[in-house]
Amino acid sequence: MNEVYQNKRFVLYSKESVNDKGKEEVLFYRKDLEDEDVDNLTHIYSILTNEEECYCEYYFEGDIIRLIRIELFEEEGDDSIELPKFISDLGFGFTNPNVNRFFKYKFPLYEIDTLIISVETESSKIDNQLIINYADLDVLLANLNQEKRAHSDTNKILLKNFLVEICPDVKFDYTETNNNKDLIFRNLNDKLISNLTVEEVERLGDFYVKAIAKFKRKDVVDKLNTGLLKNAQLITLKDIIRQYEKHLTNDPLESVWQSFFDKYITLFDSRYVNKIDFKNIATGITKYPDLVLMDIYGYLDFYELKRCETKLLSEDKSHKTFYLSTDVSKVIAQVSDYLQKVRDNAVTYAKSIEEESENDTISGLDVKIINPRAIIVIGHSKELNTKKKRNSFKSLREGFKDIEFVLYDELLERLKNLLKIIEEDKN
Prior knowledge:
The chain is of the alpha+beta class. The protein is built from eleven helices and 16 strands. The chain has a nine-stranded mixed beta sheet with strand order 1-2-3-4-5-6-7-9-8.
């Protein structure tokens, strides 16, 4: 038994041997100087060598991982073999306390009991072994050390700033914290989002705008601005979809749907560029459509909104057929009346809309009332739960020339498809 070295608390011994597989090995033992039993030695690891490889079998007292195998570098012309600095040569595990605690107490993969630190093999999981490449481990340790230094620097800055705030006579400069770029980006994750306040999110937005200003090339600025716009669209669209889904569940009054569509109708169909307040137009109509929209070509469409739980079909049991329900028939009669009055007074209405929409700064709207359409938003496809019902409703809805039926869940699908397009385009 050879003494390798001694510190104030422990002695490290080594012993050369040949194991039962014929491999040369050096066994290392730790002796606690406070232990009065002189023969009480702890076998902590072995270094094994042959013509092909040199590695250390390191006994680890983890809850799950019990063995670490470390591939070692053998310097040419140098018979001494040392453990890498990331592992304790006294058998106490990883020298970084965070790494050591993780693999000792927090490691979650119960099917793994062996950790291999490899020179050439890529990081991977094979059966009961977790392989970590040296290069990957170096990156981890560098990041952890950087985090530790940044934490220490932040604490120092916070203390100095505290003294400046409570006692301005103290001659310290007020310093912003977290100026380490890599550290900041590592912390930009979804977990952080849940902890942000409105004011903090607003600060992030201000920071993004200032960051864009550093670039001078127009193509770069345009690209960043486009990305910001798409992000804003995604946020808005996701919120609108959440509201829509909530309305579908609650089946609110028609007035609630009208308010919702009044805000967001242009998202459902990008052709529309103007909403017209028909109630303020001198048309002579006493009952008004819920929405009147003008498309990019100046043509008008009339929207009538009913509840999403409105019954679509009734059954004629004697003939084993389906026909449009009473509620649907009523709304058809209602919109047919709109359309007829608009056709009969097309010139007068167009002129009234132009005059009422004109002001000191903009010209009036040049609308074209030619074969106007009525779009009835009503019902849900869950009612069409058989092939016969679906075919019947398809035939009935396609039988109208100037009236179109749109189901509420069909509009939700449009919104989700739009969201998917924006997300794919962003990526």
